[in-house]
């Protein structure tokens, strides 16, 4: 009843949409235009004629073997982020919420990797993995074993995934913890009277009531996996070895910034957005966040 | 509350101990990098690479001295706080309004707006920065050193994330309260400011934390839109650690330490709002 | 009276080591404003000069910032300039020249937001900006102030010509050379000769490999540039090397294919395909690797300056390059934009500022014994053994040529870089890799 009249929509929705329109959509759409020209620099220089190449970049997109690798890796990363980032975050949030002493401390400590800039984390893991005297190989050496090529073709994806997944658990941890805070105590109290407590209450109360928050986390996780960029780039630049570790995010950066192919970079950017919208719609379809409204 | 529930049970000590062990183990992995960064901030660059995991030989401050020489730290913190603080507040206001509209109203084109919000979540900065720079040059913000040049685009950039998170939280809020208020004659504005906002304080705090953090760490956007050396934010320190031919890792460790500290303070202050009990009485009413 | 003071000052100045020098004369006589002598500074800083400056703000951008070896030297110039010209405000926005920065600069030029004076690249990577035709030519500058680039060597001027129209726009400062750095102590330890020819290189590679020392430190996925350039250069005559052909020339293919021979011989570390440049450099610095092909800027970072030497890239039988050919040159310089030129006050200020950065003394300070210097270098100076070794090597470069990427678009050259691992491991032929680069290059 309260929400029958539609005029407040204008007040609530329009300011935000204007901001997004001016600073996100207008620039992004004008950037799409670049994908039809052969750009030699990031921007049209005055006095420079650009070659119109039509749909050339879009045709390339479907022929490009690296796009396939990147897409495959990104989808794999999506699944891993949902399982490990959101999953672990849920476990830790429930555990931290269940203890009495040190809640604040754990909340603070778990947030550290989210705050530390990727350049430092990247270096840390680089020094773990380094073949010539990295930390892991030093340990192996002390145990009398042969050093391992941690970033070889067979291992690279796993070794890159570990820091990527680990570093953002804290992010979902905070969001889920907030969701748990929103669950009223009396729900638990009522359940306890009915004999539902301890771990049982987690499955029958906490998780179902977190549905909306978990759906948000999953949406953020899959779209985040599409954008994942800085840690993989630091650990295995340019999809090393042999382009096997490209993700859509790193491949786009590689194309646009390190190879100066800005027009193709714009094409990939558009591709990522399209894939992202499709995937997030699919997520909505599967988990149905709006159910309880 | 779970803790209270446990009290009623028989000695459950062992499971509590296991829980603590698991939590502490994870905490070790999350704290380690920070200690590592801090330790390495007292080393020479070469030493960082060769003896990264060793204790520093001496707690020498040369990297910090260098950082202070390269950037006016006080001014840089000030810029960062102004920019990221404004971004945080702007996003909180706009995103809660948008989420309110998106979760409480049914309207034509809702799905389109939803897709627009989710789509923009994936816009890479590199694809939007040039037209934004052109806009800011045109209105004169870049040349006059107006920090709005960085604030406005960053508000927009964080808005989609914040709106999605707020939408998730608001969906979980029961409608009864709002309807009860309506019965008592409250209008939409009153419902929004007196019920929705207080109830979503924890969620707003969460959104605020991340918007602050991302704005604060977004070196690329800020360095494109803030040009005056005197106004550069603190994360610009990371631009000072390298040359085309290499990076000073000791200086990087010091820079990262200097950059992390204020964010952690903001986080600790804000997360105090993420506490239980706000909704408890409310639903009953 | 003033003349004697000047003479004394000159003598004093002569006695000072080059590294002590802080600034240059902002007026016609360079020597008078030597930072080493306050007396003369007083006389020349007299009223006639400073009062002539009209008040203006000069926007300046250079690449000397952050950890660049010359950040402090440059900051001193700015400081001194501010003292000498109290009416001119220098707004300095120098930054490290990374990818993001280049994007920012290109964007600025396209939006008519360019600075007044900029130190920027002069090779193919500056082509976009040069095409926009926003700079004043060197001739115009010299017509206003004949002191500009007065002693600059012909080589430096030749190499900093615009790739767009062949005119000089930039005043070059210092250049670089690339050469083979060797850990001489490792060579001595295994009784090896320095790799002065290809056979010796191969012998060294085999011996080091047997003894678990990485023969050549290289990040093939990250920065294979120097190997690409030297292999193709050594296999070609100079004319062949500097051409921009349509199809891969035989000599280029022959040269580049050597990377596979070396790879098969075990010349590189096992992680050559994944390691990044700084980690690879570190294996050399830590004496875990015996050789590294690098540029003169690498001199600064080597901790052991006693036992490290620089030698010429080895030539094999049948290599067509002349002896003494090496990748060396100038790839950046100071520009003045037309925007500044239109404003008389800024024009004068810009000229003074460029002069302060490019007069002989300042260039020598920037040079500091590393790389190539665009003005004559006086005898003496306080250099470490590695710098001496570098300088000796630089003297042997009779035929400096610019690297391949100074003639190709960045997109094209990076295309080849991306394929280097595939070429070394035999997954792609060198010919295909080069043809691919040439194809991309011809598109723009």
Give short descriptive properties of this protein.
heterotrimer, B: 285 residues, mainly alpha, MetI-like fold, 2 domains, 15 helices, 2 strands, disordered N terminus, disordered C terminus, C: 444 residues, alpha/beta, D-Maltodextrin-Binding Protein, domain 2, seven-stranded mixed beta sheet, five-stranded mixed beta sheet, 21 helices, 13% strand, Carbohydrate ABC transporter permease (chain B), transmembrane (chain B), MetI-like_sf (chain B), cell membrane (chain B)
Helix/strand order of chain B: HHHHHHHHHHHHHEEHH
Order of strands, main sheet of chain B, comes to 1-2
Q: How many strand elements of chain B?
A: 2
Instruction: Report the strand count of chain C.
Output: 12
Strand content of chain B: under 5%
Report, as a whole number of angstroms, the end-to-end distance of chain C: 63 Å
Q: Could you state the oligomeric state of the chains shown?
A: heterotrimer
User: Given the C-alpha coordinates, what overall shape of chain B results?
Assistant: globular
**Overall CATH class of the largest domain in chain B:** Mainly Alpha
- Strand portion of chain C: 5-15%
**CATH superfamily annotation of the largest domain in chain B:** MetI-like
CATH architecture heading of the largest domain in chain B: Orthogonal Bundle
Any idea of the CATH topology of the largest domain in chain C? D-Maltodextrin-Binding Protein, domain 2
List low-pLDDT spans of chain B.
1-7, 277-285
- Broad structural category of chain B: mainly alpha
What share of residues of chain B is helical? over 70%
Low-confidence stretches of chain C: 1-23, 25-50
- Computed over alpha carbons, the radius of gyration of chain B is 23 Å
Supply the CATH superfamily name of the largest domain in chain C: Periplasmic binding protein-like II
Specify which chain pair forms the largest interface. Answer: A-B, 105 and 113 residues
Detail the topology: elements first, then pairings.
The complex is a heterotrimer of chains A (293), B (285) and C (444).
Chain A: H1 8-34, E1 37-38, E2 51-52, H2 56-63, H3 65-98, H4 103-109, H5 112-115, H6 118-129, H7 135-142, H8 156-167, H9 169-182, H10 185-193, H11 199-209, H12 211-227, H13 230-235, H14 248-258, H15 262-287
Antiparallel strand pairs in A: 1-2
Chain B: H1 2-8, H2 13-40, H3 45-50, H4 62-70, H5 73-104, H6 110-120, H7 125-138, H8 141-144, H9 148-172, H10 176-183, H11 188-199, H12 201-217, H13 219-225, E1 242-243, E2 246-247, H14 249-271, H15 278-284
Antiparallel strand pairs in B: 1-2
Helix pairs in contact in B: 2-14, 4-14, 5-9, 5-12, 7-13, 9-12, 10-11, 12-14
Chain C: H1 2-15, H2 38-44, H3 47-50, E1 56-61, H4 71-84, E2 88-92, H5 99-110, E3 117-121, H6 127-131, H7 138-144, H8 154-159, E4 171-172, E5 174-183, H9 184-189, H10 198-210, E6 214-217, H11 225-235, H12 238-242, H13 250-265, H14 277-285, E7 289-295, E8 308-311, E9 325-329, E10 332-336, H15 338-342, H16 344-358, H17 360-367, E11 372-373, H18 385-396, E12 399-401, H19 410-418, H20 420-424, H21 430-443
Parallel strand pairs in C: 1-2, 1-3, 6-7, 9-12
Antiparallel strand pairs in C: 3-10, 4-10, 5-7, 5-8, 5-9, 5-11
Helix pairs in contact in C: 11-13, 19-21
